Q: What sequence folds into this?
């Protein structure tokens, strides 16, 4: 599994503590047990305090706008040392969201560092069959390890290409700079020279900021590549000046050791990389970065962000760029693990939800909260509903050119959660669509939708597609039944529905078939007798609710009776939509004895 860039071993340890410790963690794909007596309101989160009303992307963009004018430079990067995963998605998605927001304010450049000069330190689990081929290359730069699949110039480029093709599905197209190219054309030579010139100050900054009281006396800014074995992870510098250096390939690492060779290079040979804690600030200075983020592991106390601040202030004598950090993506509170069956990889999740919805799930929470995904059918359905509702909110709150048309949010909307998006519930009162005033939480959701979707949305409810496809098993018929206005949505969503069906993701309430029996109670008979083709799903839902009310029946029990009459089970999809999808006349004829 690829680690985000080169992480110092002690930092990896801290990162694990963060992942499993008591860090703030918000589950945002709530497990949903259908409750027939409750309206299905989707806003259930506590309202934020007034100072929290801005979405995190707005807060970051504001900091950039206060400090500089266009063109804004947003940078990011990753080490492509294995298959794409949620961490890699975070590395791309969060800066891309900042870019999307800043682009509304002025020219914005998004530059992405592919750190494929980093050492290859482990054979990824899914390439275990290529272990014999890959093991001799451990310790070499990723751009010099062969691509085991044979389709790219190197291992690093294989996973870089894979990453870029996946992030493109999210509409992310950064300008990519390969670290290997930058070093080989000498872009880092002046940084290397100045670090060597000021080596004592540099050592002091790194030792202090990394909180390392056993900082090695021979620590050097450069990591040379061994001329004999080609490894970059096993060398150490024995002497240096601004033009040349000598090294020995004698370091012992857990996974390998040096070949014992001693040699020397000129700096202009470009056979080195800067230590990560120096590379990161140099990369940002080279690009004129205004803002770059990192995972919690880099931003922990003594992490590489602290070193970056020290290098900027004490070596470069400049103000550092704006930094930000993001939480982990967890599954049920745990790290993704294919072998333990925890969670899903990005490509697997994309079989079940469109990239826009997955992006929304990651962009919506506060940046530093851990995102705890629950990839079950019920929770993914909830995510899809939430995504669509957020698109409605956006249209209500922002103009076509992105201006906030709601103006100031009334103060009382913080405390009164009276603005909710309702959708048809199993037996609650009729939906009221969106009522005013909107809350700040809703404003954040609307903005998250805008950043995640890049304008792409769909009107068809995913749950409706499931119901129709379960009933008719043919997309042409589904299209006829749902109406031509949904044709494009159906084409877009059909592959996802089919993957849900093939993979057993369909929630139990949607596992049904039309198995009508005759209505028994007078209330049920009255309800079925009142059905007519002119009623839509909402009318039918209200009819059932009002029939129960007028006859003093308990709505919950009445709905159970109706489900049992129509589909032979006590619960099912939303009743109004179910009857509309089967056809009101057909249900009426089947459930009423003439
Ligand atoms: Zn390849
Ligand atoms: Zn060597």
A:
């Amino acid at each position: 599994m690829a680690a985000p860039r080169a992480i110092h071993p002690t930092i990896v340890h801290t990162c694990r503590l963060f992942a499993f410790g008591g860090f703030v963690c918000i589950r945002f794909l709530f497990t949903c047990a259908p409750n027939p007596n409750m309206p299905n309101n989707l806003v259930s989160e506590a309202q934020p305090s007034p100072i929290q009303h801005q979405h995190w992307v707005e807060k970051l963009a504001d900091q950039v706008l206060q400090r500089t004018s266009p063109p804004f430079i947003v940078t990011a990067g990753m080490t492509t040392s294995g298959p794409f995963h949620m961490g890699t998605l975070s590395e791309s998605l969060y800066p891309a969201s900042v870019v999307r927001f800043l682009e509304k304010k002025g020219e914005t450049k998004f530059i992405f560092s592919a750190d494929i000069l980093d050492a290859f330190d482990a054979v990824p689990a899914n390439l275990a069959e290529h272990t014999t081929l890959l093991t001799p290359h451990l310790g070499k730069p990723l751009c010099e390890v062969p691509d085991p699949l044979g389709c790219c110039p190197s291992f690093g480029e294989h996973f870089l290409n894979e990453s870029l093709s996946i992030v493109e599905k999210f509409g992310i197209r950064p300008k990519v700079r390969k670290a290997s190219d930058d070093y080989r054309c000498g872009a880092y030579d002046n940084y290397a020279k100045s670090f060597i010139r000021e080596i004592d100050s540099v050592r002091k900054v790194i030792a202090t900021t990394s909180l390392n009281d056993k900082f090695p006396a021979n620590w050097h800014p450069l990591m040379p590549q061994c001329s004999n074995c080609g490894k970059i992870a096993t060398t150490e510098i024995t002497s240096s000046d601004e033009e040349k250096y000598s090294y020995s390939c004698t370091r012992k690492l857990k996974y390998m050791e040096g070949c014992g060779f001693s040699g020397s290079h000129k700096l202009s040979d470009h056979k080195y990389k800067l230590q990560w804690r120096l590379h990161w600030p140099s990369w940002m200075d080279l690009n004129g970065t205004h803002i770059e983020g990192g995972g919690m592991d880099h931003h922990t106390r003594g992490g590489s962000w602290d070193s970056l601040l020290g290098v900027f202030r004490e070596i470069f004598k400049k103000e550092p760029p704006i930094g930000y950090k993001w939480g982990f993506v967890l599954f049920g509170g745990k790290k993704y693990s294919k072998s333990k069956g925890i969670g899903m990889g990005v490509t697997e999740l994309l079989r079940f939800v469109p990239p826009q919805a997955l992006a929304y799930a990651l962009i919506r929470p506060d940046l530093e909260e851990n995102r705890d995904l629950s990839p079950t059918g019920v929770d993914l359905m909830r995510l899809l509903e939430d995504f669509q509702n957020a698109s409605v909110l956006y249209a209500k709150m922002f103009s076509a050119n992105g201006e906030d048309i709601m103006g100031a949010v009334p103060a009382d909307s913080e405390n009164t959660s009276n603005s909710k998006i309702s959708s048809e519930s199993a037996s609650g009162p009729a939906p009221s669509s969106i009522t005013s005033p909107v809350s700040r939480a809703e404003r954040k959701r609307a903005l998250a939708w805008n950043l995640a979707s890049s304008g792409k949305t769909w009107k068809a409810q995913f749950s409706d597609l499931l119901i129709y496809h379960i009933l008719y098993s043919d997309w042409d018929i589904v299209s006829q039944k749902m109406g031509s206005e949904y044709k494009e949505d159906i084409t877009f969503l059909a592959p996802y529905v089919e993957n849900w069906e093939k993979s057993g993701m369909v929630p139990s309430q949607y596992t049904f078939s039309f198995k009508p029996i005759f209505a028994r109670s007078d209330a049920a008979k009255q309800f079925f007798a009142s059905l007519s083709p002119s009623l839509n799903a909402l009318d039918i839902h209200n009819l059932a609710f009002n029939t129960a009310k007028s006859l003093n029946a308990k709505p919950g029990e009445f709905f159970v009776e109706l489900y049992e009459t129509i589909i032979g089970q006590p619960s099912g999809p939303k009743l109004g939509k179910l009857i509309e999808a089967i056809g009101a006349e057909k249900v009426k004829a089947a459930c009423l004895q003439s």
Notes: Residues 1-51, 408-436 have pLDDT under 50 and may be disordered. The pocket of zinc ion (ligand 1) is lined by residues 147, 149, 151-152, 158 (CB under 6 Å).
